[in-house]
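for the record, two folds in this file. i put them one after another cuz i was lazy. first one right below, seq on top, structure tokens after. the second one comes after a little note so u can tell where it starts
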Amino acid sequence: MIKYVRRDAETLSDDQWNEFFTNYNNNIIKAKLDDTHPKLIQLKALANEAGRPIVTDFDITGPRIVVTPNFRTFAGDVQAHNNAITEMPVLDYLVNIHYIGMMFPNNPADGTAKKQNHLTNIFLPWHRMFLLEFEEFLGSPSHYWNWYDNQEVPEKMKVANIKDVIKDGNTKFYKDLNRTSESIIDGPSKITNTKAEFKELFTNAWKSLYDSSNIDSFTKISQHIESALHNNMHNAISGDSMSNPIFSPHDPIFWFHHSFVDKIWADFYNTLSDDEKTAITDYPDNEMPFFNKKAKDIKDIKIDQKISYQGLLKDRSLVSNP
């Protein structure tokens, strides 16, 4: 039985938008974990293992986001700092597990050891589990921004609008959230000059997933989706959060972007024949920080995670030799 259907943001009704914003306010921004919560206990343990201080405060009132403590220059006792934390907002917890997940090695000698969640072959499965973690707290679907068809950030998610609807009590939580641009074909970090050029770029990247050198290697599939169909969107929106891979989940558009990246993987996987699926043999055996699962156990989002996506982005008709 499907638990959630993730929908294109452009198709959401007012009621569905209200559900998202209400749940985001109540369950992500206002809700807190105390030091008896198993997820905060796990965060402390993994931060201690990685030797990194947990970020406990995000000042978003100035021209740039300021995190405390500064994890790059922290000179104190990491474990003492982490173990002393007694409470944490859910949003801060989510940002921290993304950040701490980047602090593990990218190529551990032990093929089952924890590895970092970017620039490795756990990128796709780790972020799929991260979306599920977000939805567990949110209590509703993490819908997606279909930037293939709509190169501008969805209207309801633009800074001018979210700073009025996402609030912490009476405070505008995102009053000073900055983005360099709210279009991926406009602004200083634009990907292409026109929508047609962008769609051609995406289509070519989609076709490349089926190249004989890629299609039977999960590592290559993951690396290709991360580099060709994920990274540029962060850079094009940019600003204080989205351009910072460590703290990017602080911007709520992060979830809609990553939901679409996950959809790309899901749609690609669902277009493969059974023989092609069987031929993919290099799913990583590494433990994914925070998530007690292997990539091979979560490869089919509909069957394994009970999540469905609205519509199919692309089928095999664009591939010359399917």
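(here's the note) second protein begins now
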Amino acid sequence: MVASPSPSSELSVTPVRTAAPHAVEILRFNTCGSVDDGKSTLIGRLLYDSKSLMEDQIEALERSADITGGGQINLANLTDGLRAEREQGITIDVAYRYFATPRRKFIIADTPGHIQYTRNMVTGASNANVSIVLVDARLGVIEQSRRHTAIASLLRIPHVIVAINKMDLVGWSEERYNEIRAQFEEFLPRLDLKDVKFIPLSALNGDNVVTPSVNTPWYPGPSLLGYLETVHIGSDWNLNGFRLPVQWVNRPNDPKDDKLHDFRGFSGQIAGGIVRVGQKVLALPAGLVTTVKEIHTLDGPLQEAFCPQSVTLVLEHDIDISRGSMIVDLDVPIGTGTDLYAKVCWMHARPLQRGKKYFLKHTSHTVQVVVSDIVHRLNIETLDPEVAPAALAMNDLGEIRLQLARPVYHDSYATNRLTGSFILIEQGTNATVAAGMFLIPTEYVKPESGDYAI
């Protein structure tokens, strides 16, 4: 959380929009694909060849080699840590790993390939800048390849890498590489993907993972790590339209300090846009216009802040704002309403049916909802919508209509991944049953000049 301002803080701080020269950019990526496509092995090879492993990790791999690797180091064990995963040679749960190069820091999410664990893939990919879809060069494009690529599109992941793995098992055939690429390009135009890169590789042997391979003279590059180090992610965050979901009200109430004794700030992570001292903003649901007086962060006060920084805002006027409220840009309207349409990935064994009640968790706000209609279900084989299905089963993708007990202030997921996403929670069990993405709002909040001003 954001710390309270210190008594000695000064407000004269030079605003910075981009990372400082010494800062290292963080890139988040996930691996996905079908069972045995080599996702965990690819991550293990990436960590091993980039010299990102500690000595004790290498020793642990060597100790487990006789048990799980037939006397050879099994790189998949770096992420497959559960006993069941190692016994079956599969990935069951999402595993996160971290490593860095001089150019970037990386957060990796290794996600399962089994169809019953598609929900885990959605969890691991939800915050990714890049999604790596692995394909076995021997099998080509299969249902899980289409499913995970469709989910990457649904989640609006900005960059997708199609890693055609096990090329060594097809003799490094350029013809086979082109066949699989053509299979993907048949259905990619039907998905909303803007940046797709194809890379032939062998995760087991390390070809084109960290360094370019001599086995693919027909492939101009880059290697997988080369791409991850250089792909532009600076524009992945939405900087148009300020959004601050309020997580808590910061009231230090220090009686020994006059400034902290009266301090009242609103803390949260900026979910979109840029905010500046002196900027007029709209506080919701109060519907009142006020001015940003101060911006505080853990590192001190700023004159300007932007997504995804965590901040505490001090406003010019005392307004009834609490957790679940939202402070937004006055000039960029935000959606509202109680009758909303959304796309969902259903994640529970009990199917979704019309008329069912759930809790909808959106940013820091929770509201009761009823699923009033299931508009369609996406056929993964054809990518065509199946209109008015009776239900959505586990791992189904579809569009639904929601009736909310109270309005939520949101953007379309296509506009803002943070304010356009939500989860559905089952009442009684508190189980997360769906990940959802709002479609284009049918109503917008935009106060007329003067009507809402203090």
